[in-house]
Batch of 2 targets.
Target 1
Amino acid sequence: MAEAETSRRRERPLSPHLQIYRPMLTMMMSIVHRLTGAALFFGMLLVVWWLIAAATGPNAYANVQWFMQTLVGRLILFGYTWALIHHMLGGIRHLIWDLGYGFGPAEREWMAVANLVGSIGLTVVLWFVGYLMLGDIR
Amino acid sequence: MSRSSLRTPLGRVAHLGTARSGTRHFWHQRLTAVANVPLTIAFVLIVVGVLGRNHAAVVQILGSTFVSIVVLLFVVSSVYHMRLGMQVIIEDYVHDENLKIAALMANTFFTIAVGFAAAFATFKLAFGL
């Protein structure tokens, strides 16, 4: 009985955690999907700020416009755009998996690459269009 | 697992599972994810469309019926999706039971407050109050 007690208290080996694995693209993309999701959770505050400002009046709206023109504002907005597109493409990847496709080694690898390249590419294109729009109006 | 129970293992888990909530969380996450794809694209296009415009023009665009409906759907679907996603993150990383309950509550409060505020602003823009 005493023996059983001590063996119960002895440190048992835990199952291996993330840090023992060699970093792989699909694994990194999984982490980034969660991180972008968490970022977008708080990023929604920007959307709400923008909508409330528009509903409040010209002065409140001018504040939002001023902030978005600052370097910090632009960086946050750029990051938000990328996180949104990345999480959306990542979500589509997950929906493909939910349907039972894309589990092969080659498929999951190119889908991860496509997700990354697509999100960066689309973000740059969107910002390019955005700057064109700004140029048109002014 | 209690051996004295007369219920079969299948009967115990049918429709509900160990969390007593069945596949609702999983299903609603997918449902809102699918909804969010077109809604996010539409929302981003709306934002690009109003870039740099003055307040009066923005109010006119955001207050138009179609745009209001799209923004409202985007906000409601996103906020629900956010709540489900953050719930999983909290359940994964917060192990203290009391802290976990507090975090899950805060998650619900935050997402409902954000959703309500955005919806209210959208209605105000649409009805021009």
Target 2
Amino acid sequence: MAQTTVTSEALVDREPPSRWAQFRATLGAWGFMAPAGVLVLVFFFIPVIILFVVSMTDLSSSNFSEPWTFIGLENYARLFRDKFFPKILTNTFRYVILTLSFFNVGLALVLALLTTHIERRAGFFFRMMWLLPRITPSVVYILMWRRIAHQPPFGIINQLLSPFGVEPRYWLFERPWLFVILVNGFVGASFGMILFSSAIEAIPRDYITAAKVDGASTLQIIRDITIPMIRWPLLFVTTYQTLSLLTSFEYILLLTEGGPGLFTTEVWALTAYKRALKTYFGHNQWGYGAAWGFILVFIGIVLAFVYLRVFRFNELVQEPKIDVL
Amino acid sequence: MKVELENLTKRWGDVVGADSINLEIQDGEFVAFLGPSGCGKTTTLLMVAGIYKPTEGFIRFDERIVNQMAPKDRNVGMVFQSYALYPHMTVFQNIGYPLKLKKVPKEEMQKRVQRVADMMGIGHLLDRKPAQLSGGQQQRVALGRALVKEPQLLLFDEPLSNLDARLRLSMRSEIKRLQMELGITSIYVTHDQVEAMTMADRIAVMKDGRLQAYAPPEELYDQPRTLFVAGFVGNPPMNFMEVEVDRENGDYHARREGFDVVVPPDRGEKAAGRGKVILGIRPEDVTLADEGVSGEIYVVEPLGRDDLIDVRIGDAHVHILADPTLRLKIGDNVKLKFNTHKVQFFDPATEDSLLWT
């Protein structure tokens, strides 16, 4: 929308074009935006509206064939009254913050720095290896982890540690959070790693040479030159991964199903999924689940706006160098 | 500080960056590394800076071998073609960065940065970011950053190549003046022979990783040791043609089809009796005259002060400089006089000079 106005204004500035030319310019701008616009409309705006409408009904598998009723915000009230609501909320924060800081950004940055400071081909190979978990099917990947942390007498950790006199345990059940974060982080880190390493490699060599001559050590170069120069990918990965972690749950579902015990590792997105589509007795409360889901969408949108403001994305994204024709 | 390179070699696998470079730079001397791109001049410079480790040979600073010394311990200042100013830092932070790394106290740092910035005429720009400066200002900041730590050696890597022609001229004389006043030993890498000629005390001409010549500008110009040096140094470049030199009645004649000039005996005797040799003569040493070698004008290129004229003699071409008021035209017949005291002779096989060894 904004783009369109800019286009026609720029045209007005130069010389008064005919109405037809103006119309054509506007049409062109809309034409270029249309494919992306249609995608966002069909796969985001419309589903969100449907979701919101469903969240205000009592629609569930028990009354699906009968006329269901609008119940206003009752689902939301019920959600906040839920005994486990505080637990799920803290779980979600813990999951997002720990995975993001230690793995999706932290480890990703460490990996990117390591693989760009060793021999080029070795770095490339190492990064490729690190991508393997991402291209492994989720179920296979999680099965491997479950084998790793399986209960005695099984479990690869137990096998490896028993010669050192460590008592075999059911690691996954004793340290569920450790594994939830590891499992997500190992995959999540590769995204940032790829972005960061390409950004690091794009830094002109002269800057690094200049810093070395100025007297900087490798760590000082990373602190003073490399990291400030990859600020944009750092911010991008942080925001993008926050939002995607908020809505991700499939590894947790496959690994612990939110357990062990009641809601130990259950996060918001998993709750929404379970309420709406996978309750134990087959009683799917679509309306109630939609309320959980809608709040997540709402938080996501708010966070996205906050990020845009706080990190001033507009300033970071360069203006295109092409003039309006 | 005195700098000495001994058999300095850099190889990456089969690729040779620099091939046994031997040269010595006196304390306070301004030396230019001159050569076409890919000749190894920047490779050599980066070895001196400590960025590349030499494959073989030694680098000595005041007799001390510094091959293994880290760049930060070499006390070297460097200026880049790209300026390499840190874009996220202000001018003050850029210039002050070497001092910050040395943990110089804040107050002293403030003073030293201000002093250098004032010296470079950018004292009023300290709060700006590099992107807000013009190319010339950026290059001054880069110079300031190199100078602020009071280095014992200054390295310039084509520092003026990104500036426009006018600014290049003024920065050229400014850098030369500054270097003389501060007396800091300097190495200046350039592919521009005018820059090298005008600025340097001595010029090291390089080609394919090898040192071709190392001499003061005048000597390089008047006594080129190789065909490459003769052709690379000087603008417009030296004319070359194949001739045979014979002695006849006590005179040495350099001859080819349509061309016969008498050369002085001290030069002629070194080229005589060798069959075909390459004669070299600079455009300014060939003049239009009433008599002499006749030729036909092939191309006229107006340069403003002079016209650069391509004269065809048989199947050889000679470039000369002529007065534009003569209004010479393509196809005109002219006679050329050669200042034979300035002719050069080269061996066509080895491309070495027959006069200077």
